[in-house]
Design brief:
The complex is a heterodimer.
Chain A lengths: L3 H9 L8 H5 L23 H11 L14 E5 L2 E4 L4 E4 L2 H4 L8 H13 L10 H12 L7 E5 L2 H16 L4 E4 L8 H6 L14 E4 L13 H15 L6 E4 L2 E2 L5 E2 L4 H11 L3 E5 L24 E4 L10 E5 L1 H7 L12 H16 L2 H22 L3 E7 L2 E9 L4 E2 L1 H14 L1 E2 L1 E3 L5 E4 L7 H16 L2
Helix pairs in contact in A: 5-12, 6-12, 7-11, 9-10, 13-15, 14-15
Chain B lengths: L6 H5 L2 H11 L36 H11 L14 E5 L2 E4 L4 E4 L2 H4 L8 H13 L10 H11 L8 E5 L2 H16 L4 E4 L8 H6 L14 E4 L13 H15 L6 E4 L2 E2 L5 E2 L4 H11 L3 E5 L24 E4 L10 E5 L1 H4 L15 H16 L2 H22 L3 E7 L2 E9 L4 E2 L1 H14 L1 E2 L1 E3 L5 E4 L7 H16 L2
Helix pairs in contact in B: 5-12, 6-12, 9-10, 13-15, 14-15
The chains are: A alpha/beta, B alpha/beta.
Chain lengths: 469, 481
């Protein structure tokens, strides 16, 4: 039973005035309910989950993995919700891996795509078309410094491949530096930059070195950026000719488990790399477009201006689209030879991308991410007080990670428990993502239209599930 | 509207007529039924097309060029002296900002297979986009499974496991990685004059210096190109195949990861590999433990007409097939198809592609396969393509500048040379003819190492009237040189 002090605290706490207080207080007793949503999905008449799963096994290869023991057949989406074949609604807290930025089937994005599809879907950039030019201009406007030359590609992997090529050509050097625990792509070249063994096939990945990850939670130096940065200098001094091609990093590592780089790290490293003749590449595939709340681009949270920025995922709300933005000086080296991408910058993806930029601005999504994100993180930190299994709550805006450990001191990854909770959350109607080398981090990166009620529901569901462990 | 051909115009000199045409700013779309005659003095007429494009209200060509210069890559090029602002497409026609209609003889680089804005494909895209556009393959969705099944049914042998990517480059990168993992060897062999992509691995396989940046591209060897027109051994496929044997014996450990080829080289200038080449090379590669990868990005998906896939024209069954471009009628989509046995190598680690296999792209791809079957586009490519090639060959008899006419189905090339014996590339003339053809309403592409080959790769709904118009315009333009 709560004593007087606790009751006073509860009464005075900010969240009392909220109607859902009652629900939250009793969250550990009953399963929470999805926030209401005024929308009926279309009755699904297609193949069942079982039929689809059988076909996948037969035609899509044994390496294709999926979430959940009983795989989920997602047939429709609307804003921050998804629907399965039975018409059941789920809160999408993962956004197709941080990809659906505006919301599933956002009406304005749909309109832009449909209209362009009816006019001209593809002709390539050997002819002019206004969509690619307008979109490039729109993107350049969002960039600081002299970052204003845009290359369009079809994925994050292609973008990072191109960035690596630019770095090597511009600097005239070969060696690339990336962070341990990074993910930058799945092609042979970007597999070299990626630094998580589960994603690295045993193929030659020459001239790429991985430095100590400035991971505040698991890193040996805690949050002391200067000590981590020293490892970069050490590597340049002892592991290279003294000259490098470039440095690439995510500001909040995605696949690696929503790990935010120790504050001040990039500023120091960028200086070291530039002194050694290298260029600095910011991989904004997951952190871009206002998702971090405090800034439009992840790199801005570290107060730096990179030489090359790569992006994908959220840029098109799901359209296969990626981009590389750089300075005119660096772009110049690319004009030595022909660099062409057949699908890159096609009218439909460009129109969709431009619509995404407009929607995110019009609906003030960056501020929204900041507000909802801080509410979410606050609630999660409270939850952390309640359950020992929550080792760390981190991130910013709507790019949040929850790391589960069986022992807070040793930080032993709670792999099994994560898997169980993952399934439980699905049963309650919440779809989250998983990450980290040990698969013990929940990744909460929903469509940016995710609101406070959704956040409350998610935390309540987590609370309820953990109480049942 | 005025009749195109009057007795007066027949008497005018060809040059006058040409400049008058330009000054008037013709609108071919509303021309009457006048059939193309192929005569030197009469300008050919675009075939009729009952369709009016919507009025264009967007930025002009000048504004776009200015923005491109400022915000887009400096290496981005465009065709024609006065770049064309293409704002709308319908089946095999394109429209510019003034509503002028052009015959699209290039298909967005062999990409638009069913036709611009084909109603069935657009419908599939719109329906799926309104339903769910993206969710990743971490969850199930029937679109990817149905499309994979349909694609597998088009494949011979045991080729039935599909990996979806977003481009030809991604597909070839994955294919090369699979071959290296499967064999445990690193050496890949590709043909000189090949184009396979522009990422780290595929740039190595690509073999034309203007597409290769000065970066490390290890593990790839380039063998002599079995080019019937320019190659040292003419059409003797087996002689070229010997070079592959030599290369393996002396340039590798004796074991290789694989061999990658295009059955008809696209960027390289529509070069069809000499007959009997692939069957010889196939056994050589197999002896060296390697995998054979068929790059069907341009020659696949019904384009060669005689078969669905380019490699089928050479009587072999590869171990891995890659595709992109035409498979989605323009939507960013690529795929790698291989056997279940080879596919298991990727289970050693995680391979994932966020956008690959998304519901919209796969729904579009599936619609494309259905349209090709329903509208018998492969047969059309064969019939119209053969007819077109025949007419182009007759044109070759007429104009000395045409050194070679080659290709299959609707993947055709016309190589221009200033001297038929020494085969000196007529690169400057190609540009001039291309520009003239554009002014007359025909858009084609160019390629080849010297940029002297016309690439004719239209949407597969191209018909005989279109073929006649294209040849007549080419004839007319060449006569003006």
């Amino acid at each position: 039973m709560a004593n007087r002090k606790t009751l006073t605290y509860i009464v005075n706490a900010k969240w009392v005035s909220n109607l859902s207080f009652i629900r939250r207080f009793s969250s550990s007793l009953q399963p929470p309910e999805l926030p209401p949503f005024d929308y009926q999905p279309v009755p699904y008449k297609g193949p069942s989950a079982h039929q689809v799963f059988e076909k996948r096994k037969k035609f899509l290869g044994p390496s294709l993995f999926h979430y959940y023991q009983k795989p989920l057949n997602i047939v429709e989406g609307k804003m921050q919700y998804l629907f399965d074949e039975d018409g059941r609604r789920y809160l999408d807290a993962f956004a197709g891996i941080v990809t659906v930025s505006c919301g599933h089937c956002h009406p304005e994005i749909l309109r832009a795509i449909e209209e362009q599809n009816k006019l001209l879907q593809h002709a390539t950039t050997i002819y002019l078309h206004h969509a690619i030019a307008d979109f490039a201009e729109g993107l350049a406007e969002k960039m600081p410094g002299n970052l204003k030359v845009v290359y369009f590609v079809n994925s994050g992997t292609e973008a990072n491949e191109l960035a690596m090529l630019m770095a090597r050509l511009y600097s005239g050097n070969l060696g690339m530096i990336a962070l341990r625990n990074a993910y930058h792509g799945g092609s042979a070249g970007t597999i070299g930059l990626t630094a998580l063994k589960t994603w690295k096939y045993p193929i030659p990945q020459g001239e790429i070195h991985h430095v100590v990850n400035p991971n505040p939670y698991r890193g040996v130096f805690g949050s002391d950026a200067s000590l981590y940065a020293q490892d970069v200098q050490d590597h340049i001094d002892h592991g290279t000719s003294g000259r490098v091609a470039g440095f690439i990093s995510e500001t909040i590592q995605g696949v690696g488990g929503a790990v935010e780089l120790a504050p001040g790290y990039l500023k120091m490293v960028y200086e070291m790399v530039r002194k050694a003749g290298g260029v600095c590449i910011a991989d904004e595939v997951q952190t871009g477009f206002g998702r971090t709340g405090s800034h439009y681009w992840g790199f801005q949270t570290q107060d730096v201006i990179p030489d090359i920025v790569t992006m994908a995922k959220g840029i098109g709300n799901g359209l296969p689209l990626g981009a590389v933005v750089t300075t005119p000086e660096i772009a110049q080296v690319m004009s030595q030879k022909i660099q062409f991408n057949t699908f890159g910058g096609n009218p439909v993806c460009s129109a969709g991308g431009l619509a995404v930029l407009k929607v995110l601005d019009k609906e003030n999504r960056q501020k929204h991410c900041a507000d909802v994100g801080s509410h979410l993180i606050t609630r999660l930190k409270n939850l952390q007080q309640k359950y020992d299994i929550i080792g760390d709550v981190r991130g910013r805006g709507l790019m949040v990670g929850i790391e589960l450990v069986t022992d807070r001191k040793d930080k032993t990854p709670a792999k099994a428990e994560t898997a169980v909770l993952f399934e439980k959350l699905r049963e309650l109607g919440v779809l989250v993502g998983k990450g980290g080398l040990h698969g013990n981090v929940f990744r909460i990166k929903p469509p940016m239209c995710f609101n406070k009620d959704d956040a409350d529901f998610l935390v309540d569901a987590l609370d309820y599930s953990m109480s049942k462990l | 509207m005025q009749r195109l051909v009057t007795s007066t115009s027949l008497l005018r000199s060809a040059k006058d007529q040409f400049s008058r045409l330009r000054a008037r700013g013709r609108w071919f779309s509303s021309m009457p039924e006048h059939a193309a005659t192929g005569s030197k003095n009469e300008e050919p007429v675009l075939p009729r097309f009952e369709y009016s494009p919507p009025r264009y209200m967007g930025p002009t060509a000048e504004e776009i060029v200015r923005k491109r210069k400022e915000f887009l890559s400096p290496s981005m090029f465009y065709l024609y002296k006065k770049p064309l602002n293409i704002v709308h497409g319908k089946m095999q026609y394109l429209f510019d900002e003034n509503g002028r209609r052009y015959l699209d003889g290039f298909g967005g680089i062999a990409t638009v297979s069913c036709g611009h804005g084909h109603p069935d494909v657009v419908q599939a895209i719109v329906n799926q986009t309104n339903n769910i556009q993206h969710s990743t393959i971490l969850y199930l969705n029937h679109a990817i499974a149905d499309f994979a099944e349909a694609l597998a049914s088009k494949m011979p042998g045991d080729l039935k496991v599909v990996f979806f990517t977003n481009s030809g480059t991604e597909a070839n990168e994955l294919a090369m990685m699979i071959a290296r993992l499967y064999t445990g060897c690193q050496d890949v062999i590709s043909l000189r004059n090949a184009y396979h992509g522009n990422a780290a691995g595929t740039m190595g396989a690509t073999a034309m210096c203007n597409w290769k940046f000065n970066v490390v591209q290890s593990g790839v060897h380039h063998t002599q190109n079995p080019d019937p027109y320019r190659g040292a051994f003419g059409s003797d496929g087996e002689k070229y195949a010997k070079d592959v044997e030599d290369l393996i014996r002396f340039g590798t450990s004796g074991h290789v990861a694989g061999f990658i080829f295009e059955a008809i080289q696209g960027v390289g200038g529509i070069v069809e590999l000499a007959p009997n080449y692939l069957t010889s090379v196939y056994s050589t590669i197999k002896k060296a433990g390697g995998l054979v990868i068929a790059d069907e990005v341009q020659c696949g998906v019904a384009r060669t007409g005689s078969n669905f896939w380019g490699f089928q024209n050479h009587g072999i069954v590869p171990d891995i097939v890659t595709m992109a471009k035409g498979i989605g009628n323009g939507i960013p989509l690529g795929a790698v198809v291989t056997t279940p046995e080879i596919a298991t190598v990727l289970t050693r680690r995680n391979y994932f592609n966020t956008f690959g296999g998304n519901p919209v792209s796969t729904a579009a791809g599936h619609a494309v396969l259905k349209v090709i079957e329903k509208e018998k586009l492969q047969e059309n490519a064969h019939v119209v393509g053969s007819y077109l090639k025949e007419r182009l060959c007759s044109l070759k008899d007429k104009h000395e500048i045409i050194g070679d006419v080659r290709g299959r189905g609707l993947l055709l090339g016309v190589e221009l040379v200033t001297d038929r014996k020494s085969k000196t590339p007529a690169s400057a003339e190609v540009l001039e003819v291309m520009d003239n053809m554009k002014d007359l309403g025909v858009l084609i592409g160019k390629g080849g190492f010297y940029g002297n080959v016309f690439r004719v790769t239209p949407p597969l709904c191209f018909n005989k009237q279109d073929a006649d118009f294209l040849v007549d315009v080419m004839d007319y333009s060449m006569s003006k040189l």
